[in-house]
Specification:
By secondary structure, the protein is mainly α. It has a domain at 32-68. Helices cover 76% and strands 0% of the residues. α1 packs antiparallel against α2 (37-63).
Length: 68
């Protein structure tokens, strides 16, 4: 995408949904690698929050007839 091009709302939602999906994967991986239980718990909470956010955006995209 050219810097001067503007993103549509749907494109921004798609971009956010992909970023949230990547965050879920990353935080889940970090949680499995953490040796300290409190750190593991924090990463697990972050993964759950990202998953919740991704789910909401995916539902919004489906509502507008788009595939997440």
């Amino acid at each position: 995408m050219n810097i001067t091009e503007k993103m549509t709302d749907i494109q921004m939602l798609h971009d956010y949904e992909m970023s949230a999906s990547a965050a879920v994967a990353g935080y889940s991986l970090f949680a499995t690698e953490a040796h300290d239980d409190s750190v593991r718990h924090v990463f697990a909470q972050m993964a759950a929050a990202s998953l919740n956010s991704q789910k909401k955006v995916a539902e919004m995209l489906k509502k507008y007839g788009r595939q997440p």
